[in-house]
Specification:
Layout (H helix, E strand, L loop, with lengths): L28 E2 L5 E11 L3 E8 L3 E9 L5 E8 L5 E3 L5 H5 L6 H4 L8 E2 L1 E6 L10 E9 L5 E11 L3 E2 L2 E9 L1 H4 L2 H19 L3 E10 L6 E2 L7 H7 L6 E6 L1 E2 L8 E3 L14 E5 L12 H12 L40 H8 L12
Parallel strand pairs: 1-11, 12-13, 12-15, 14-16, 15-18
Antiparallel strand pairs: 2-10, 3-9, 4-8, 4-10, 5-6, 5-7, 5-9, 17-18
Helix pairs in contact: 4-6
Length: 368
């Protein structure tokens, strides 16, 4: 089975982007935020690894989320998204820098004005994932490619948020799922709830009011999951029992990697569909020592959930940085650093606005 070469975590080079309309400052924000949320569903036919579709979005569109669900044994990538004049979002240019990057077909989309990454079994995209990009309503041309060469159909879903201003605050309901041995352990429950309270404080500072919508005992959830790089079936089975909101799954361990894997977000960004294969965040209790004063469980919950709401690392080991103008690697004790540190719990204004633009985070203007 083919795959897109080195989709993530490889290089620091960046192709020159095509012209795109950028704001001089963050967009207007209000207490009301988004006032409309609509959904679309489409079936696309992949032929020789490619497909395309024309999307029509309302005139007052401010943000939208795309989910593609395809074959489990293939990778998918949104490699082109062009909107009304000037509203270039994702591109796949053939450049020397892209060819030398090692990212293969994923180079252009990854370094686009609105970063797009591939995933196995489908893919997702939040627009904008850089709030300095201007987004308009109108007609968009979306291009999709797959590592699977044979003809097949995929399902595409869109969540489109409209209004006159982005949200200053939003509400994020969270469901926490645990396997029976952990759900029945009073000490584990105290640790999980204490970590959730810390996550609440981190997100509150970013304008996100987190609430515990449910604490669930999931009978079929194993206490240890394989590494997601090896086997995703157990993850998909767990996510299929998700609830409306952000779903966090707590287990003992994720594979036997060295160093240990602390958490996993099933997509950047997550789907807004509760039972999607891209709808879960998983954290491992064994990643840090609960006896230490600086337990990393809260950090891991907040960090992986922020991936799920659309954020990338400020800087990866390979050296390349996120596309946001107000994040600086090594400064500001940022939550999205690549190394897990208890004191790193800050988010920049751009990062916070990206998270508040995800449909899982509900604006007050949608309550009517």
């Amino acid at each position: 089975m083919g795959r897109f070469t080195g989709v993530i975590l490889l290089v620091a080079c960046q192709p020159d982007p095509s012209p795109v309309l950028r704001r001089a400052a963050l967009p207007a924000q209000s207490a009301t935020g988004f006032t409309g949320l609509s959904q679309q569903a489409h079936e696309l036919r992949m032929r020789d690894g490619f497909s395309s579709i024309e999307l029509s979005l309302p005139d007052n569109t401010l943000s939208f989320l795309v989910e593609v669900e395809g074959e489990l044994d293939a990778e998918y990538l949104i490699d082109r998204l062009e909107g009304p004049p000037g509203a270039l979002v994702v591109e796949a240019p053939e450049t020397e820098a892209g060819q030398e990057s090692g990212l293969g077909a994923a180079a252009g989309p990854f370094f686009s004005p609105n970063r797009s990454v591939a995933a196995r079994g489908g893919t997702t995209l939040l627009v904008p994932n850089d709030p300095f990009l201007e987004v308009f309503g109108g007609t968009y041309q979306l291009g999709l490619r797959s590592s699977l060469g044979r003809d097949h159909s995929v399902q595409m879903r869109l969540w489109v948020q409209t209004g006159s201003a982005y949200p200053l605050r939003c509400r994020l309901p969270v469901h926490i799922h645990r396997p029976p041995p952990l759900a029945d352990d009073a000490g584990v429950e105290r640790r999980v709830l204490a970590a959730f309270e810390e996550m609440e404080a981190i997100y509150r500072a970013a304008g996100i009011d987190v609430s515990l919508a449910g604490l669930h005992r999931q009978e079929q959830l194993p206490t240890e999951l394989p590494s997601p790089s090896v086997d995703l079936q157990s993850y998909h089975a767990a996510f299929a029992r998700g609830q409306s909101g952000l779903n966090i799954f707590v287990v003992d361990a994720l594979g036997d990697e060295d160093p240990a894997l602390g958490g996993y977000a099933s997509a950047i960004p997550l789907s807004a569909r509760a039972t999607s294969r891209f709808s879960g965040v998983v954290v491992a209790l064994g990643f840090s020592d609960p006896a230490r004063e600086e337990d990393l469980l809260a950090y891991t919950m907040a960090h992986e959930s922020a991936h799920g709401l659309g954020l990338f690392h400020v800087q990866e080991f390979a050296g390349w940085e996120d596309p946001l103008a107000d994040t600086t690697p090594g400064e500001g004790e940022n939550l999205m650093g690549v190394l897990a540190r208890h004191q790193d719990r800050n988010l920049s204004p751009s990062q916070a606005l990206v998270m508040r633009s995800h449909p899982l985070c509900r604006s007050s203007g949608l309550d009517d």
